[in-house]
Structures are given as C-alpha cells and as structure tokens.
Amino acid sequence: MIRQSPVTDAAFVFAGYLVVVGGVALYAVTLRRRVAKAAARARAIRAYAAGPDDAEPAVTERRAP
Amino acid sequence: MMVRQTIASRSGRLVAAGVALVVASGLVLVPADASQGDVQRLMYVHVPAAWVGYLAFFVVFACSAGYLWRRDPRLDRLAAASAEVGVMFTGLAIASGSIWGKATWGQWWDWDPRLTTTAVMLLAYIAYLLLRQTVSEQRRRGRVAAAFGLIAFLNVPLVHFSVLWWRGLHQAPTVLRPGDPTIDHVLLAQLLASVAAFSLAYAWLVWQRTRLEGLLDTAVTRD
Predict the structure, then answer these.
(1) Closest C-alpha to A65, from B141, B105, B50, B13
(2) Is B175 among the domain residues?
(3) How far apart are CA B178 and CA B180, in angstroms?
(4) How far is A61 from chain B (nearest CA, A)?
(5) CB 3.0 to 4.6 Å from B153: which of B36, B61, B148, B182, for a disulfide?
(6) Which of A15, A7, A36, A49 shows the shortest CA–CA distance to B212?
(7) pTM (two decimals)
C-alpha cells in the first residue's frame, strides 16, 4: 500500500467526499426542479382538460406516441 | 398537493442534515485507520454509495418481478426511479473508489474482478434506462423493462462475491461476510451510520423520482 504525506492523503479524502456528496446534492437539486416543472405542467393539463377555453395545452417532457 | 410538497421539502432537509452529520463525523470525529491512515475515511462514502447501488438494483429486481405478475404501473415507476438513483450511486461509488485506489494502489483503475463486474453492472442499468426511453407505449415499456430488470440483477451477486471467488486488488468484505466483521467497533459504528444516512437519502430520492415518473405518465395519458 502506498503511503503519501498527510496533506496528499487529506486531498484524496476531500476529493472523494466532494465527488460523492456533491454528486448526490446535484442530483437531488436537479430532481426537485424536474418534479416542480412536471407538477406545474400536470396542473396546466388538468386545467386545460377541465375546460376554460383560454387555457393553453402544456408541453410535456415525455410525448405520447 | 401543497401538503405533499411541504412534507417532501421538510423530509428532504432532514435527510440532508443526516447525511451532513455522518459526513462531518466521518471526516473529523472518527479516528484514522491504523494501517491506511486518513485515506481510509473514504470508506464512509464509498461503501454506503456501493451499498445503496445494491439496494436500488434489488428494488428494480423485486419491482420488475412484481410488475410482470401484477401489471401495476406503480411498480414499473418505482423500478425506473430506483434504477436511475442506483446508477447515480454506483457511478459515485466507482468514482470515489477510483480516488481511493489512486491513493492506496497507485492507480485510478484496474481490471480487477470487483471493479470490472461493477462497471458491467453500471452499464447494464444504463442500458435499462436507455431501453425505457426507446419504448413509448407504457404497458409495453413496462414489460420489456421488467424482463431486462430481472436479467440485469443476475450480475449483482457476482459483484459482491467477486472478491471471494477471484484474486484481485480489491479487499474482501469486512462487514457482509461469514463470521464477525473484521473492523474496529468505532469505525464499524460510523460505517453503519453512513449506510443508514445514505439509505434514507436513497429512499427520499426514489420517492421524488417515482413522483416525477407518475407526473410524466399522467401528462402523456392526458396530452
């Protein structure tokens, strides 16, 4: 096993923690935004289906065939 | 709807606080390993990420079997959500393992049995997610993805036991092994706390991702 200086060890540890915690945090934030956007679209579709004539049909992330 | 958003937001903050707590204790409070020194602290994020990958893919397997039996679209959504979150955690486990490997083995990557089978597992579940994108009709997508989800899981036990069945650089299991764990009790407590916090994070992410899948399906059927 390779032993480096304590500073190099600390750099590896911080890099590893940054990758994992940063990756999870980035995914969580992106997911929250996607959920909020999809919820807004679903609300718009429900409003359109319910009836007011001036409601715009929503553009969905996943299109029906 | 607003109540659900509030619960999601508050529980998300709680989970984030839990992860922050175990990260801080893993970095500062727990003593360094006698053999590896501070580099061993990477275990507290690398092992939980890998564990959550296993858990996620087991959920895909169980939901796929359930979907083929019951044809319940909620199981299909849960499988899709779990696969995506599992791919994310497995990718992070490989990345953090690579950093740990560079620090201890002197190289970022080796075609070691554990590393190779993990890479194959990651590719299999990326293929699962891509397959879902190629089929637009919901019921057909569910059937095809469920069949693939069952087959893809065959590799998961291979990943876990690869360190016992073949010689390689990666160390053998220290906790999930026959006999007592070969790890100090304090380090084991920290590891288990990290696994618990990451598992909660997985549960929260899958909950949100399943909700997204449901919203997208609703939008398509009403479009």
Answers:
(1) B141
(2) yes
(3) 7
(4) 7
(5) B61
(6) A36
(7) 0.89
Q: Mutating which of A17, A43, A48 best tests the B interface, going by the most B Cβ atoms within 10 A?
A: A17
Which residue from A31, A49, A65 is facing B209, i.e. has the nearest CB?
A: A31
In a domain? residue B74: yes
- Count how many domains chain B has: 1
Each residue's pLDDT expressed in tens, for chain B with a length of 223 residues: 677 778 888 889 999 999 999 999 999 998 888 888 889 999 999 999 999 999 999 999 999 999 999 999 999 999 999 999 999 999 999 999 999 999 999 999 999 999 999 999 999 999 999 999 999 888 999 999 999 999 999 999 999 998 888 888 888 777 766 677 778 888 999 999 999 999 999 999 999 999 999 888 876 664 4
Q: Which residues of B touch A64 (CB under 8 A)?
A: 136, 220-221, 223
Provide the 3-class DSSP secondary structure of residue B33.
Answer: strand
Q: What is the Cα–Cα distance from B178 to B157, expressed in whole angstroms?
A: 15
Domain that residue B199 falls in? 41-217
